[in-house]
Amino acid sequence: MTTRYVYDFTEAPAGVPGAVGLLGEKGAELAELTRMGLPVPPGFTVTTEACRVFRATGEPPPGLDREIGEHLAALERTAGKRLGRVDDPLLLSVRASAEHPAPGLMETVLDLGLNDYAVLGLGKAPDRERFAWDSYRRLVQMFGTTVMGVDPARFERVLNGIERQHQVPDDSRLDTSDLIRTVESFKDVIAETTGEEFPQEPAEQLRRAVLAAFACIPDRDPEPGPDPDPDGRGTAATATAVTVQTMVFGNLGPDSGSGLAVLGRDPRAEGEGRYLPNAQGRDVVSGARPALPLRELAQLDPEAYARLTACLHRLAAHHRGPCEVQFTIEHGTLWLLGAHPTG
Length: 343
Prior knowledge:
Layout (H helix, E strand, L loop, with lengths): L5 E3 L10 H17 L7 E4 L1 H10 L6 H16 L12 E7 L10 E4 L5 H5 L6 H18 L5 H15 L9 H19 L7 H14 L24 E7 L10 E7 L8 E6 L3 H6 L5 E2 L3 H4 L1 H18 L3 E8 L2 E9 L2
């Protein structure tokens, strides 16, 4: 019987024994949210079994590229977009999904699928030009660091230099021409550091990101001795799954944003947390700009806030306790990017 290595969120074995071991924590979480009918950007998970084959042989398992291609084609049909298409391309996020939080896992790669041509299609409308080049800047920086092994300080020095030249406090104040220059400078850093160019073929970007997630698993310490962390949380992972998900954007203007919401043990209470308009989730976590208290979202977008509150209460009831939700609002539409119990 042929081993299956890829599962769509809608068909993954969520909420059953062994799901986290097969899909990783993030993959199982997204499959469970999808099964509950909550608003989750569509995607698929490459299982830990594929990673184990790669770790044992140095090569991905036979047929993995075909499986990923089939699931990508289904994702393109769902989105009505194609990866790498010049006109309004499909963009993806790729993240490692181990069984538990562990050191050394690959950081998430966002906006995968952009290249020198797709960025022009993404930004063909005048009000989206800056957004498109900012997205490309983020991809080149994240891909260069996490997949191609470039020291992140190299990119930070370039970005800080451009910010100082234009006397702006952070990259959110750079205009389109500044971001175009930043992208070109970042690609130069990659070429100088690695001896190769930033890959322009989206399928190659995806394949390399998946294999980089597999390769990031550190070798176990062979030294015998008592396990200092017997529950496994915070220790080295033995394998990781990889989630591939349609991108949603919180940085499309004042009717978009990202945030973090927490609902405590009192199911009648409102959620607490923070929200950052016109921003991606990474901007919220980094603290580069001050976020608003979550309750202010009720004034900015009452409908999205009401939907978020309903999701929080449903998840708290499902988990029978407090829960934390990462979310993005894209042009007024709420999307959940992750949710887990905190109690």
